[in-house]
Write a structure and sequence with these properties.
The complex is a heterodimer of chains A (about 140) and B (about 500).
Chain A: H1 7-35, E1 42-49, E2 52-56, E3 62-64, E4 66-70, E5 75-81, E6 86-90, E7 95-99, E8 105-109, E9 115-121, E10 133-139
Parallel strand pairs in A: 1-5, 4-10
Antiparallel strand pairs in A: 1-2, 2-3, 5-8, 6-7, 6-9, 9-10
Chain B: H1 11-15, H2 20-48, H3 60-94, H4 103-111, H5 113-123, H6 135-139, H7 144-172, H8 185-216, H9 230-264, H10 271-284, H11 300-311, H12 313-328, H13 337-360, H14 362-368, H15 372-402, H16 408-434, H17 448-481
Helix pairs in contact in B: 2-3, 2-4, 2-17, 3-5, 3-7, 3-9, 3-15, 4-7, 5-7, 7-8, 8-9, 8-10, 9-10, 9-12, 9-13, 9-15, 10-12, 12-13, 13-15, 13-16, 15-16, 16-17
The chains are: A alpha+beta (about 140), B mainly alpha (about 500).
Chain lengths: ~140, ~500
């Protein structure tokens, strides 16, 4: 090793390890909260296929390309795919889950304000992947 | 000297030679050819995304084919062959052996690259370099997809053969007076990356075979319609290709270990921690593959395990950065082109690593996954660290390969333009990802922030493009007409070099 001391390196590695432990613990804690689906969340079945999204509400109503939800309610999305892999994403609400044929993936969110948000596919799914978009329309029933 | 342009050898003497420097030269020229081809595709992609709507490329299918071949080319046909070329030149000399352990195998490994590359380029497949099923099974147009699969199979075999050769050369053929603890760090980097290849690539080879039989309709490993599971492919793929990023980055770090002490005129701060970090990185590289798959519906426990595994790679990489900075501390640094590329590469390595921590943390992953953040992140590694290390080393080895000096001013201009361009393109892409732009899209809605940042990125890419043209001109002109180099010490940093000019080619 030669004629220099190694303590700066040990301190440095210690700091890096401590930082990583901190990042990991914070992320673990946040993820635990994010994964917990609230009681009484309404289920919506989200189906991805080349190249559009279909939504089926609990009461049986179906929508294509547009999803209407209400402010203040929690929604549990069950995401499935009919053909290839897609990824369901509402960027403004940090909702992201892959739609994989043969699997049902769940993710939840609770809209806070009325408004319109973009829904997009984030997993490459072929020719019109770039345009596999939709609209999330959050309505305020009291307004 | 290898490329003797004053007394040229006939081209077939180099092509059919099995001497390590000749094979290294073939690797070098091939990989640089593919660098420019893949880079041209990158410029086409950026030009198309300059404005929303279809302008340059015209249709989505062509665009999808272009980014697929761009990625495949630069990873498999530029970075890996370039590392092999450096390894071929330097590893036998560094372990003081007359050649690679298996010279003919070495030449065979090289000669698998042209057919593999031809299959990829002639096929021009569109299913991204992941080839994710079920798209790659049921929708990807053949024969392009099949040609891609065969091309990658051939390239995979080539890297496994190359890896065996490096491992045997370093472990069995090193000079008896040389202990394993005296092998230079560059050779250590090839040893650790070759060991990763030996473990990782066969997994992907199996996955590719399964994918091919799925495409032929005789099996259903990954086809849900036949009871298969597409996620199984994702596991096999990332088990290979997460460690593979370390295969790409470790030799580049090794090249910096050669350059930085030389131009700092100081021994490396800690040889042992360099070796330790290489070995550690090649082990923990295997514990982090599923952080690419947080959004596929994994359980909380699985995600936690892989987050810990991913974060474990950070201290190992950080040790290298510390080593470099500590070496340069208080040193009489000579900032010639190779040193500038290495220092720039370290700065970008550090920033890309910091971004990588955000990808590893589970909840943050959902804002960044499959957006331009990820594109920016790994390009910052691939371009900012791996290509910077490689190009810096290319300038470093230029006098040894050609016996002439490159033009120093042009080299510096190349570096400054590339550095500015890299920051403009890939830092911007991180921000673009936070605004939610998905990757691999041919067109985007006219959102003002998206347009502005795409334009910054495209301008940056064009700056890199121009700098690469300068680089090409410099290399071609200087290898023929550059002023003759002092092969004892071409950079005037003192100390005697023991590199390829001593490796006499037996064929002349």
């Amino acid at each position: 090793m030669g004629g220099h001391s190694n303590w700066p390196e040990w301190i440095y590695i210690g700091v890096v390890v401590a930082l990583m432990v901190w990042v990991g613990a914070e992320a673990w804690e946040a993820e635990r909260l994010v994964e917990h689906v609230p009681e009484g969340a309404e289920t919506i079945i989200v189906t991805g296929q080349q190249w559009f999204w279909t939504f089926e509400h609990e009461d049986g109503t179906k929508e294509i390309g547009e999803l209407h939800v209400e402010v203040g309610k929690a929604y549990k999305l069950e995401i499935v795919s009919k053909d290839v892999n897609h990824s369901f994403n509402i960027h403004d609400y940090v909702v992201l889950m892959d739609a994989i044929p043969g699997r049902v993936n769940t993710v939840w969110f609770a809209p806070t304000d009325a408004g319109e948000h973009d829904i997009q596919c984030r997993e490459y799914c072929g020719l019109i992947h770039y345009n596999m978009r939709g609209k999330l329309i959050v309505e305020d029933p009291t307004a | 000297m290898v490329l003797e342009l004053q007394k040229p050898r006939p081209i077939w003497q180099i092509m059919f030679s099995t001497h390590h420097t000749d094979v290294g030269l073939l690797y070098l020229i091939t990989s640089l050819g593919f660098l420019f081809l893949g880079g041209a595709l990158a410029l086409a992609i950026r030009a198309e995304l300059f404005l929303p709507g279809a302008q340059i490329i015209g249709d989505a299918m062509t665009f999808n084919r272009i980014f697929t071949v761009h990625g495949t080319t630069l990873i498999f046909l530029f970075i890996i062959p370039f590392a092999s070329s450096v390894g071929n030149y330097y590893v036998p000399i560094m372990v003081r052996y007359k050649d690679m352990a298996y010279p003919k195998l070495n030449a065979i490994a090289f000669w698998m690259i042209p057919p593999g590359g031809a299959l990829i380029w002639l096929g021009f497949a569109d299913f991204t370099w992941y080839a994710t099923p079920p798209y790659s099974i049921i929708s990807a147009p053949g024969p392009a997809a099949d040609m891609w699969i065969f091309g990658l199979k051939i390239l995979g075999i080539s890297s496994v053969l190359g890896a065996i050769n490096f491992i045997v050369t370093i472990l069995k053929c090193k000079h008896p007076d040389m202990s394993i603890g005296q092998v230079p760090l560059l050779a250590w980097s090839f040893l650790s990356s070759s060991l990763i290849i030996l473990v990782a690539i066969p997994t992907f080879a199996a996955a590719l075979l399964m994918l091919l039989t799925d495409r032929l309709g005789v099996s259903g490993f990954f086809n849900p319609a036949m009871g298969g599971d597409p996620i199984a492919y994702a596991h096999l793929f990332w088990f290979t290709f997460h460690p593979e990023v370390y295969v790409l980055v470790i030799p580049a770090i090794g090249m910096m270990y050669e350059i930085i002490p030389r131009f700092s005129r100081k021994p490396i701060y800690s040889y042992n921690s360099g070796v330790f970090a290489f070995v550690l990185l090649s082990i923990v590289g295997f514990s982090s593959w599923a952080h690419h798959m947080y959004a596929t519906g994994m359980s909380f426990t699985e995600k936690t395990v892989f987050m810990v595994g991913t974060l474990a790679a950070v201290p190992a990489s950080a040790m290298h950065v510390f080593n470099f900075v500590a070496t340069m501390w208080n040193a009489r640094i000579k900032f010639l082109t190779p040193m500038m590329w290495s220092v720039g590469g370290i700065a970008l390595f550090f920033s890309a690593g910091a971004g990588g921590v955000a990808n590893a943390a589970m909840p943050l992953d959902f804002t960044t996954h499959d957006t331009y953040w990820v594109v920016g992140h790994f390009h910052l590694f691939v371009m900012g660290t791996i290509a910077f290390g490689s190009i810096g080393f290319l300038y470093y080895m230029f006098p040894y390969v050609t016996g002439r000096m490159y033009n120093e001013t042009m080299g510096k201009i190349h570096f400054i333009m590339s550095f500015v361009g890299t920051v403009l393109v890939f830092f911007t892409q991180h921000v673009l990802g936070l605004y939610g732009m998905p990757r691999r899209i041919f067109d985007y809605p006219p959102i003002p922030e998206w347009i502005a940042m795409n334009q910054i990125a495209t301008v940056g890419a064009m700056i890199i493009g121009v700098s690469m043209a300068i680089f090409l001109a410099n290399m071609i002109y200087s290898s023929g007409k550059g002023k003759p180099a002092n092969t004892e010490d071409p950079f005037g940093v003192g100390g005697k070099y023991y590199y390829p000019f001593e490796a006499k080619n037996p064929s002349h």
